[in-house]
Amino acid sequence: MPKFMPLIALLLISSVAWSAPDRRTSLDEAVSEARDRYNGRVISAETRRNNGRETHNVRILTRDGKVRRLRIDAESGRPLPPRR
Questions:
Q1: What is d(CA 15, CA 9) in angstroms, rounded to the nearest whole number?
Q2: Which residue of 10, 43, 75, 82 sits 20 to 30 Å from the alpha carbon of 19, by its own alpha carbon?
């Protein structure tokens, strides 16, 4: 086994870790995602902190008159399930 194989393995592992899709999302990015997803007009958008985590909450008025709510985790950029 060549001497540089451990180095290649380390580089491959680190590149996978850095290419993870999770990334911090701004409120503007959350608004754009909500607008694209529901094709409507933004009614409100705010960032809230709960238990040390920030969540972007966006409300959209769709073209058919429905209000849709989208919650996005600010740290990961992933959508969260709606609150009940």
A1: 10
A2: 82
The encoded tokens of residue 14 equal: 């680190």
Q: Which of 62, 77, 67, 69 is nearest to 30 (CA)?
A: 77
Distance separating alpha carbons of residues 56 and 47, to the nearest angstrom: 4
Dist. CA 52–CA 40, nearest whole Å: 31
Question: 68 is in which domain, residue-wise?
Answer: 23-80
What's 35's domain CATH number?
Answer: 3.10.450
- Cβ burial 40-49 (10 Å sphere, 16+ → b, else e): beeeebeeee
Q: What is the pLDDT of residues 15-61, one digit of tens each?
A: 444 444 567 899 999 999 888 888 899 999 999 998 899 999 999 99
Longest Cα–Cα distance in the chain: 65
Number of domains making up the chain: 1
Examine residue 16 and state whether it is found in any structural domain, yes or no: no
Round to whole Å and give the CA distance between 47 and 32: 14
